[in-house]
Write a structure and sequence with these properties.
Rossmann fold; 6-stranded parallel sheet; 2 domains; globular; alpha/beta; 5-stranded parallel sheet
Amino acid sequence: MADSLDVDAVLLDIDGVLVTSWDALPGALEAVATLRAHGVAFKLITNTTTHTRSALAETMRRAGFDIVMDELVTAVSATASYLRAHHVGARVFVLSDGDPRADLTDVQLVDVDDADVVVLGGGCDDFSYDILNRVFRRLNGGAGFVAMHRNLYWRTRDGLQLDGGAFVAALEEASGVKPVICGKPSPAYFAAALGMLGVDASRAAMVGDDIANDVAGAQAAGLAGVLVRTGKFRPSDLERGRPDSVVASIADVPALLGLAG
């Protein structure tokens, strides 16, 4: 694992890296400020689906981060872009936490039984047996299958919590229909964020707490993958992947990049 990284841009996961339950993690505010002070290009690239981009920017500012909406790339906005490009005029059912409608303003949202396309996002209490069974039937009936991400779980202040990716995997297995993934670990998602920065993947690093979606996904897209030991990190993750670097927390990232405080 590298002792230092020579890159021009950094993609930062949010939940588990910068915040937990929307409270800033120790050293996170200072780390982001150091990146900005040294002119390191960065985007916050997240599979979080509880917030629209504008609401997420405001939530991050309340947590103390000097962040504007254009510095955020979300799985919801990536899903909206995919639907506009590939399912023009389709009737879409969305099952997710939060309210994604503000980022899906030109998408026709319908009940599951009328859907041409089914979209799954973050896990929540709405993922009942009844609704999942109806989704299963729509997939068997020919509906398209889209997932905002494949996260299996995330960490809150109360511990690990099951996420929507677990249900995506179950429906894929049961129906035999392979979903299109719009957020991490989709290579297109990383490419879109880097395109906004104007930086090649070989000159960028992804910092995350998810060994599969953040680190391995980024490495497959040509970026360096940095794993933090916060958030959903578990020691067994190091047996499931080979990060380019492992750090205790986001507070150690500036030093990893050779930046003074």
